[in-house]
Every structure is written in structure tokens, then in C-alpha cells.
Amino acid sequence: MICFDIEIADERWASCPVEEVTANVARILSGALSVEASYGDVSALFTNDSEVHGLNLEWRGKDKPTNVLSFPADDFPVGEGETPPLGDLALAYETCAREAAEKNIPFAHHLTHLVLHGVLHLLGYDHIDEEEAEEMETLEIRLLSQLDIADPYSDGSA
């Protein structure tokens, strides 16, 4: 199963269901993916726009904050019997909260989607081209539905 190491770096996250969200994401992924793909450690930093902005600029060359950043732990050496690291996530409180409000959806639902989205990136999923995006979005929609979370890619007008 995927295990999360959670760091709360911005006090506004303290009132959010971070542990419940990460546990739900780990559970739905463990039932949906192969044992190898759904096993590993994820370090999740719950921080703010300022810190994510800096990380986004440093690692992606994008001079703005974003909701979630994923940093895969590609080819990280693992000792015998150790749990492999999948990588790191960084989530920006202000951007996540603003997006949830703009979409008029519960913050916890949006957060669950973003954590799931970030972990899928750590597992090698991407949305650079249309075919990859469709595969990733279809998986996200299917997994989120197990938690009674609506399609995050729907505009809500259906």
C-alpha cells in the first residue's frame, strides 16, 4: 500500500482532512493498480502558494504557483526489505482553496483529486498529449467515483 509521510508547513492545512484524504487515496489506488505500482512511500508537503511558486520556478521554470507539484523518485536506490520511495508532492493551500471555491465543490473533494492526480504522476501517468490525458483522467474519474466524488473534469452542467 502507498504510505504518506505528511508535513504541514502552513497552519491553514491543520483544519483540513489531510490524513483522511491521503488514506482514501492510498486505499483506492491499492485496489485499482498492480501490487508493485501501488506500493511505496510518498512525502506530501502541505504548504502555501509562495513555497510552491518557488518550487515551480526552480524545477519547472514556471513563474507562478500551482495547485500540486509531483517529484518522482526515479531510480532511487532501495535496500533489501525497504519500502521504495515513489516521490514527493507539494500542495499550495491558497490555490487549492481558490480552485475549489471557483468550481463550487467541497474543498476535501478537490484536495482528494489533487492528491490522487499527484500520486498518479509519481506512478508514471501524465497528460502531456491527448491520449495520455484521456487515460489519466479516465482513471481519476473512476477512482474518485469510489469515494462518491464527482467527475472533476465535468463543468457541472450535465
List the keywords.
alpha/beta, Collagenase (Catalytic Domain), 5 helices, 18% strand, globular
Fold topology:
Blueprint: E1 2-8, H1 18-32, E2 40-47, H2 49-60, E3 68-72, E4 85-92, H3 93-103, H4 107-122, H5 130-145
Parallel strand pairs: 1-2, 2-4
Antiparallel strand pairs: 3-4
Helix pairs in contact: 1-4, 3-4
Model description:
By secondary structure, this protein is α/β, with parallel strands linked by helices. The chain has a single domain, classed as 3-Layer(aba) Sandwich (Collagenase (Catalytic Domain)), CATH 3.40.390. It is built from five helices and four strands; from the N terminus they run βαβαββααα. It has a four-stranded mixed sheet with strand order 1-2-4-3, sandwiched between helices.
